[in-house]
Design brief:
The protein has a domain at 309-538: Dipeptide-binding Protein, Domain 3 (Dipeptide-binding Protein, domain 3), CATH 3.10.105. It is 30% helix and 20% strand. The protein contains 18 helices and 21 strands. It has helices at 2-13, 78-87, 135-146, 155-159, 165-169, 197-201, 211-217, 272-280, 292-298, 327-335, 339-346, 371-379, 388-401, 423-435, 448-457, 475-478, 495-506, 510-527; strands spanning 58-64, 92-94, 100-102, 105-110, 116-121, 178-182, 185-189, 234-240, 244-249, 263-268, 286-287, 304-317, 352-353, 413-418, 441-446, 462-468, 530-542, 546-547, 550-551, 557-558, 563-564.
């Protein structure tokens, strides 16, 4: 089709990695060590290898445009999460094999009923300014996360299982059942069991923050090296908006002996061609934005890396606005998308066309199982990507049933997108695809940090979105659509869906829990709450001499134990 050839040209102009929401979450905590860690055991930081390293030197990394924020509790993007996990560490962390191991907590226990966790902090912990870090810092930080005044996107998702959370949401933060009986002991009491609470404790949003620095400096605490007090491998020494953020080794970090690079320079670059030029000139050691026109020639280059991640690329409808509050309208617009073409042509096969909302790489109840495959067995694939023309005709019929035959009477609307990589090319395709229905869509291109603010606030009609899982659990994606979830940018609300998610959350039977999550996914798909487009992979370029780094299924890069050979 003619429309597609135009879009392909646009896609060839610039393609890079999409900036996605943290997941993950944004989305594992800063990691070291390869030892598997069990509940209640002691975790010694072994830095990805058993040997201490002192390679030193500087690492230069392209992180993308200036993030909206590097406040751990306000962030919801991967780019910022990568920076944060090099600066902060929580109670637990994940290693290069995605095992949960000790972070600031050297050991921890869970009560027999699953309702209490006791974390024992390592002795002598310090902030980067040399002051003491204690269990009281976790009490302050987690209360700040729960505080509705903070407006943390992850607040509900991460803390709804903590006893007293509902009261905290009403302003009574002291109702949260968090205790610090002494400097080295932190107790958390849950209102309901949560079989993935250890993963939550390893998530970078749950890191401690220094109360003095945050409260005295307000929103500016994250952009000044003097106030950006950290507890992890690195501390900030320079912040230049639109240019760079410099981290240097934190001499007060408990495991500093295993941290290798003396300095990490995070280059804030929004243009893939600029990043690629800097890479070729050996000014940068790793870039995650690669121009499309270069990809075909780079596939056999050992410096060009492609690895799977758990993530879904999708369209948000602002369901709080007409006509997107009509499920028939959302269904028509969703069915008009040729997912196979988008994934395999515009995205050059780097991504794969969505068949459901939850994509590949996410486990189900049984060991070594696949949520996507169980969905296929129980329900079949929701999207049959081989029937695009048939779907398009159905879309036209649905739009007519909704009162907009051939798009007549349908108001002009916009699509919110950041001009990074292939995102604009996909937007141009959607513009042409929805034109087939008689709909007139304009493209609203905004800077990444501006776009995320407007999308979260509901200042849009339709918008690009994507989510990379913070941890391996389908609830991490499905829960986004709960009415009260801070990352529910489309403002979808369904009492039946919320009930299924809540039942899954409190279920102590693993098979029952996953069955409920399957039901929840089917419900939101039938409501066309969002329009899934593609399942994601990450691709980037990294110098061959850069060793001992790793990339997680949550889309994070770990550089703190790396070296240059």
């Amino acid at each position: 089709m003619k429309k597609k050839s135009v879009v392909l040209l646009s896609a060839a102009l610039s393609l890079g990695l999409a900036l996605t929401a943290c997941g993950g979450a944004s989305r594992s905590a800063a990691s070291s060590g390869a030892k598997e860690e069990k509940e209640g055991s002691t975790a010694e930081g072994e830095a990805g290898s058993a040997e201490k390293s002192s390679s030193g030197g500087q690492l230069d990394v392209e992180v993308g445009p200036t993030p909206e924020t590097i406040d751990p509790q306000l962030n919801s993007t991967r780019d910022a999460s990568v920076m944060i996990l090099h600066a902060f560490e929580g109670l637990l962390r994940t290693d290069k094999d995605n095992n949960i191991i000790g972070g600031l907590a050297e050991s921890w226990e869970k009560s027999d009923d699953g309702l209490s966790y006791t974390f024992h902090l390592r002795p002598g912990l310090k902030w980067s300014d040399g002051t003491d870090l204690t269990a009281k810092d976790f009490v302050y930080s987690w209360k700040r996360l729960a505080d509705p005044q903070t407006a943390a996107p992850y607040s509900y998702d991460l803390m709804n299982m903590i006893d007293g959370f509902e009261e905290a949401q009403s302003g009574n933060l002291d109702a949260l059942k968090l205790e610090a009986p002494d400097d080295n002991t932190f107790l958390v009491h849950l209102s309901k069991p949560c079989d993935y609470f250890d993963k939550i404790a390893a998530f970078p949003v749950m890191v401690p923050l220094q109360e003095k620095s945050v409260e005295e400096n307000g929103d500016s605490w994250t952009t000044n090296p003097e106030s950006y007090i950290t507890d992890g491998p690195y501390k900030m020494t320079e912040y230049t908006d639109g240019d760079r953020v410099v981290f240097e080794k934190n001499e007060n970090y408990w495991d500093k002996e295993h941290i290798t690079f003396d300095k990490i320079v995070w280059h804030l670059i929004s243009d893939a061609n600029t990043a690629y030029t800097a890479y070729k000139q050996d000014e940068i050691d790793m870039i995650k934005d690669v121009p499309t026109e270069e990809i075909a020639g780079l596939r056999d280059n050992p410096e060009f890396r492609v690895e799977p991640i758990r993530g879904t690329y999708y369209v948000n409808f602002n369901i709080a606005k007409k006509p997107f509050d009509d499920a028939k309208v959302r269904e028509a617009m969703t069915l008009a998308i040729d997912r196979d073409y988008v994934a395999n042509t515009i995205m050059q096969g780097i991504y794969s066309p969505s068949k459901n909302f939850v994509g590949p790489g996410v486990t189900d109840a049984a060991e070594n199982s696949s949520f996507e495959k169980v969905t296929e067995e129980k329900y079949g694939d929701f999207f049959d990507n081989s029937k695009y023309q048939e779907n398009l005709e159905k879309a036209k019929q649905l739009l007519s049933e909704a009162g907009y035959p051939n798009g007549q009477g349908f108001p002009s609307f916009s699509y919110l997108v950041n001009d990074n990589g292939y995102n604009k090319a996909v937007a141009e395709y959607l513009q042409s695809a929805w034109k087939e229905l008689g709909l007139n869509m304009t493209i609203d291109v905004q800077e990444w940090k501006t776009m995320t603010v407007n999308r979260r606030a509901g200042n849009y009609d339709t918008a690009r979105n994507s989510w990379v899982y913070d941890w391996d659990d389908p609830a991490n994606l499905i829960d986004l659509l709960e009415t009260n979830n801070g990352n529910n940018d489309g403002k979808y609300s369904s009492a039946e869906f919320d009930a299924l998610v809540e039942k899954a959350r409190i279920s102590t039977n693993r098979e029952e829990r996953f069955d409920l999550l399957h039901q929840a996914e089917q419900h939101m798909l039938k409501d066309y709450a969002v329009a899934p487009i593609a399942s994601q992979n990450d691709f980037w370029m990294q110098k061959e001499n850069l060793k001992n780094t790793w990339h997680s299924p949550s889309g994070y890069w770990y550089f703190m134990y790396g070296s240059k050979g």
